[in-house]
Amino acid sequence: MILKDKKVIIMGIRNKWSIAWGAAKSAYEQGAKVICTCSSDSLEKAKALVEELPGTEIYLCNDVSKDEDIENCLKQIKEKHGKVNGILHAIAHANTEDLRNDFIKTSRDGFAHACDVSSYSFVAVARIAKDIELLDSGASLVAYTYYGSEKAIEGYNVMGVAKAALEASVRYLAVNMGKEGYRVNAISAGPIKTLSAKGIKDFNTILDVVEQRAPLHKNVTIDQVGDATSFLFSDLSSAITGEVLHVDNGFSIVGV
Ligand SMILES: NC(=O)c1ccc[n+]([C@@H]2O[C@H](COP(=O)([O-])OP(=O)(O)OC[C@H]3O[C@@H](n4cnc5c(N)ncnc54)[C@H](O)[C@@H]3O)[C@@H](O)[C@H]2O)c1
Asked: Which atom of ligand 1 is nearest to the CA of 61?
């Protein structure tokens, strides 16, 4: 059990298909005390889910584009549980029209919204967690990203830009927070059918292409991404920071 005696926060549980749920299950199985967060529209579903992991609690972090929502949530967790050893950020959003239209039509507001919720919020979580002294020594922060940050993938559009900003933020945060011994990494997960993924045009085609071309010829599961997250939370990855770890059955290494 690689997370025995660790406490981790999993942000972004929506339903049983959420990648965050895979992370919560894995951390629990690896011996961690798991504390989850969700937004108000998923509270009932998330509450029912976490009951499957006895002792796991759920807190509301309704809108990560508001510092006060993040602060209230993390302060409540600190009050009840003290310091934590890890935080996962599994949160992203872009307006549907910005995923459906050509990228060139992205509005100024849509661009700002996608980057605010999907990239800046990770910086805010890191800063607030540090400010309220929520992080135990050696704490590990993880964010989820996608290959659409590196290559232009039709339909991923502004989310690709937001993920590129998220990955750069991971590197800058790793430098800032490394001074105090904290680690910051991202996992670039292969495509998985979740509610968020439904917003992406021709998502089934993306899944088919991965199955055909990835070296391991299959798609990844939330459990596999969850296990990689547990590894990054654990002391087994103590020399890894500022990294974007691809958990994609090798798809991103293939050229022609
Ligand atoms: N599904 C994929 O193919 C895939 C691949 C790589 C990375 N990811 C990333 O994984 C993460 C989790 O997504 P998922 O696919 O599990 O989908 P999901 O829909 O299950 O999770 C997205 C979460 O973001 C939360 N959220 C959105 N806007 C929010 C806001 N303003 N404030 C607070 N919470 C907000 C939702 O409530 C939800 O819990 C995202 O960062 C996503 O980009 C997904």
From this structure: 33
- Residue 168 CA to ligand 1 center (angstroms) comes to 19
Mean pLDDT confidence for 86-91: 98
Where residue 199 falls among pLDDT bands split at 50, 70, 90? confident
* pLDDT tens digits, one per residue of 11-39: 999 999 999 999 999 999 999 999 999 99
Buried b (16+ CB within 10 A) or exposed e, 203-237: beebbeebeeebeeeebbebebbbbbbbbbbbeeb
Classify domain 7-245 at the CATH topology level: Rossmann fold (3.40.50)
Q: Where are the domains of the chain?
A: 7-245
Tell which atom from ligand 1 comes closest to the C-alpha of 196.
19
The pLDDT score that the predictor gives to residue 158 is: 98
Alpha carbon of 150 to ligand 1 centroid (Å):
19
